[in-house]
Design a protein that fits this description.
By secondary structure, the protein is an alpha/beta fold. The protein folds into two domains: about 90 residues, Winged helix-like DNA-binding domain superfamily/Winged helix DNA-binding domain (Arc Repressor Mutant, subunit A); about 210 residues, 3-Layer(aba) Sandwich (D-Maltodextrin-Binding Protein, domain 2). It is built from ten helices and eleven strands. Strands 3, 4, 5, 6, 9, 10 and 11 form a seven-stranded mixed beta sheet that branches. The radius of gyration is 33 Å and the shape is rod-shaped.
Length: about 300
């Protein structure tokens, strides 16, 4: 014996309306289809489920028993529908964000301000993360959107993920204000800095790898005097006169005592991406925020 949920629901509706035609109307099927389903259910059960007489249809004892279970299916279905609607209502105003330091400082604030303006009741959260963390956290549903910076093109991601390029961020040379090269507004070639003491990002970071590669291509091994884990600290060292450094333009600070110049004929740059699920319907604010991020990136590009 094998009973299907649809058969139980049909019997529940016949019990509720005392009519197969009324049950057919609620199910949006024809009376003929109801009759066929009932016949199949009776064959599956091996007993009559509906008694047909001159006064219409009524359920047998077996039909009433199964109809009670059909009512339970309807009740649970209604609860599930209400629960899903409540969840989707909450999720429609929820946005969980992650960002690397540069994005959190420069790209996110204008976009967050715009979202607050359009959706003041939005439930927002932001976590600090690294590029390696971003894609898995979005793919696993922990975040709705993450903003990352990469040096070697977009990170690998599954088909469930979409990567949205936001802005290209070139490296610039940061110098003490007293440095002779600070007196010119011209771009500086890396080869001009071969004899300089350097402040470099600590080994192990992608930025350090690109720095080592670029100076090697310029024909020298740099004299690294200081190493820093962050661009802020590197620029603070430069302000003391300890050396020069390379910093992405978006990571420039207003530290007193330093200035910066463009790199001549350089392709040293990183790209900032927004990471989202390919299907954002469960978090509709994601698309809104993505548009705001593109506006924010355009504003930074035009500075």
């Amino acid at each position: 014996m094998h009973l299907e949920p649809g058969q139980l629901r049909l019997l529940s509706l016949i019990s509720r309306h005392s009519s197969t035609s009324a049950a057919a109307s609620e199910l949006r099927i024809t009376p003929t289809e109801v009759a066929q389903q009932l016949a199949r259910a009776e064959r599956d059960c091996g007993v009559p489920l509906v008694r047909r007489g001159p006064r219409g249809e009524s359920l047998t004892a077996a039909g009433h028993l199964l109809a009670r279970h059909g009512s339970e299916i309807d009740r649970h279905t209604a609860q599930a529908t209400a629960g899903l609607e409540e969840l989707l209502g909450r999720m429609s105003m929820r946005l969980r964000l992650g960002a690397s330091q540069t994005a959190a400082m420069h790209l996110l604030p204008p976009a967050l301000h715009g979202l607050r303006h359009h959706h003041p009741d939005a439930d927002l959260s932001v976590v600090d993360l690294t590029t390696d963390q971003a894609v898995p956290m979005v793919d696993d549903g922990e975040l709705d959107l993450a903003v990352i910076a990469t040096w070697d093109g977009p990170p690998k991601a599954s088909d469930h993920i979409t990567l949205h390029p936001l802005i290209t961020d070139p490296l610039v040379v940061v110098l003490p204000e007293s440095h002779p090269l600070a007196a010119t507004d011209s771009a500086i070639g890396l080869e001009q800095l071969h004899a300089e003491p350097w402040v470099a990002i600590s080994p192990g970071a992608d930025a350090r790898e690109h720095f080592d590669r670029a100076t090697a291509a310029a024909g020298y091994r740099p004299d690294i005097r200081f190493q820093a884990a962050s661009y802020d600290v590197a620029q603070a060292f430069v302000a003391t006169g300890a050396g020069v450094t390379l910093v992405p333009r978006l990571a420039l600070t207003n530290t007193a005592g330093i200035t910066h110049r463009e790199l001549e004929a350089s392709d040293l740059q990183r790209t900032l991406y927004a990471v989202t699920l390919a299907d954002t319907r469960l978090a509709p604010l994601t698309d809104t925020f993505l548009h705001l991020l593109h506006d924010s990136a355009a504003g930074l590009s035009n500075r």
